[in-house]
Design a protein that fits this description.
Helix content: 55-70%
Largest sheet: none
Protein name: Sporulation histidine kinase inhibitor Sda
Structural class: mainly alpha
Number of helices: 3
Radius of gyration: 11 Å
Strand content: under 5%
Order of helices and strands: HHH
Organism: Terrilactibacillus tamarindi
Number of strands: 0
Shape: globular
Number of domains: 1
Length: 57
Amino acid sequence: MITLYEKLPSDVLTQFYFEIKNNIDKGILSDAMYQELELIKVAALKRGFTILEKKRQ
């Protein structure tokens, strides 16, 4: 089964990841959305790239 994330262009997929992550961090989206982040990471891996995040200091 192909997910919506697999249909998105790579740049949009990456932007979508960081938008969801930002909204989770702000409390706009629940922690349950981390599951969606994992689905996005899987879609990226299928294309041969990894989404990396900066480490917070």
